[in-house]
Amino acid sequence: MEVIRVEGGHPLSGEVTVEGAKNSALKLMAATILAPGVNYLRNVPNIADVHVMGKVLKCLGAKVDVLGVHELRIDTSSVDSWETPYHLVEQMRASTAVLGPLIARFGKAIVAMPGGCNIGARKIDMHILGLQALGVEFNIDHGDIHASAPHGVTGTTVSLDFASVGATENLIMASVHAKGTTVIDNAAREPEIVDLANMLNEMGAHIKGAGSPVIEVTGVDKLSPVDHTVVGDRIEAGTFIAAMAGITGDKLTVKGFEPLHLGLVLKKYEQMGISIERGDREVVASRSGDIRPVDIQTLPFPGFPTDMQSQTMCLLSVAKGTCIITENVFESRFMFASELQRMGSNIVIKGHHAVVHGVDGLQGAEVKSPDLRGGAALVMAGLVADGVTTVSAIHHIDRGYEGFVEKLQALGAKVERVQVPDPEIVE
Ligand code: EPZ
């Protein structure tokens, strides 16, 4: 099997450019179903999840061509199916992002019920409740969600219990052809939602308020294909800033994203003692003194993003003091902490709280990626640790980070992908 081998103690510096945002690109790809014809997406990250979404679209009848490493041509005029098979949804729960577009285009959809994953149950009850308010009927049959809108989709006000990113996106996409106007109250405000709304409006939709807690979608008859560039990946950018900050290095310049999309993260990192210079679609970061402990609580945007929780825990595990990290978005996103304990961290988990007692240093060890962000954070921990760390289950990392090892190597890290014998299965 392939693992990532990291030799600790080598500072990072230089310049890195992040890719387009995974958590936007996947939904933009699904949204092309709404605009039959040839759509072009640029700045698409070359990652496993994008390849899976490409398979989902092909399964529905679309033609998906890779024009360049980061450019897709998606012709959805030939989409003639509304059923997404389990084996693809099982690989990537974001496949449920086709639910809204299929309902809007065909008035029906069959999507496998997504399973859970290492960070939580990943339910979609808010998606279903919201769509039912719009007139969509559901039944769950043998693990598949059968959705249909026999009387069409009719706009109304939908209030979300929680500012769910996925539910907000599915409701926006399901409403683009609705009769009347749909108001989504307590909508998610993530920059990726704004990117989706911008592309849909470029297609001819009428969406107002994206990025605010109240989004208004007025139904239109038809959407037309577009050429759209994916917004920069704020989480990839934050991951590299955290990686640099782990070990004092010279200046690291991270390009290709909007610093405002990492607003609170950058403020918290400055409180931790990291120097941050904000530029036009770039940040220059460095650290010279100790890492100071700072309490973190994850919340929907513009709160501290849960997708930066593991990376930040890694930094705080070697801070000079104790702090508390509260995870409010996912019910079990502390698996990373268990792996970090193997490297000598001192973290006590109490429900949604992690009490992080900073230690003087970490020791290299064999660890296993629990999920996408936890895997990246374990590689980060290896950069900080004394000795060698090997990170397994790196398929999680490949789902969301393009060229993660190569980018770190270019910044001075001693890190490589190596093949090791599969662990012996003990009967
Ligand atoms: C998106 O997941 C992202 N994934 C996640 O990124 C991100 O962590 C999350 O938003 C929060 O920002 C993609 O965009 C592909 P939610 P999503 O709906 O849409 C619960 C990464 O590492 N919930 O905002 O699934 C849910 O279980 C990934 O890139 C319900 O209970 O997130 C979770 O606890 C990880 N019922 C919370 O709400 C629902 O119907 C937030 O979920 C929907 C969600």
Note down, in words, how this protein is organized.
Strand 8 (137-141) and strand 9 (144-148) form a beta hairpin. The two termini are 19 Å apart. The chain contains 14 helices and 24 strands. A 4-stranded mixed β-sheet has the order 22-23-1-24, with helices on one face. Strands 2-15-17-16 form a 4-stranded mixed β-sheet, covered by helices on one side. A 4-stranded mixed β-sheet has the order 4-5-3-14, with helices on one face. It has 427 residues and is α/β, with parallel strands linked by helices. Helix 5 (125-133) packs parallel to helix 6 (165-175). It has helices at 22-31, 48-59, 86-91, 99-106, 125-133, 165-175, 191-203, 234-246, 263-271, 309-316, 335-341, 372-384, 395-400, 404-410; strands spanning 2-7, 14-17, 38-42, 63-68, 71-75, 83-84, 108-112, 137-141, 144-148, 157-159, 181-185, 206-208, 214-218, 227-229, 252-255, 275-279, 282-286, 296-298, 322-327, 346-350, 353-357, 366-368, 388-392, 414-419. It binds ligand EPZ. Residues 22-23, 26, 94, 120-127, 162, 164-167, 188, 306-307, 329-331, 372-373, 400 line the site of ligand EPZ.
Query: Beta-strand percentage?
Result: 25-35%
The rounded Rg comes to: 22 Å
Which sheet architecture does the biggest sheet show?
4 strands, mixed
Oligomer: single chain
Describe the global form. Answer: globular
Class derived from helix and strand content: alpha/beta
List low-confidence stretches. none
In DSSP terms, counting alpha (H) and pi (I) runs of 4 or more, how many helices? Answer: 14
Q: Tell me the helix content.
A: 25-40%
Rounded mean pLDDT score: 95
Strand order of the largest sheet: 22-23-1-24
The kinds of small molecule bound in this structure are: ligand EPZ
- Alpha-carbon distance between the two ends: 19 Å
Number of strands: 24
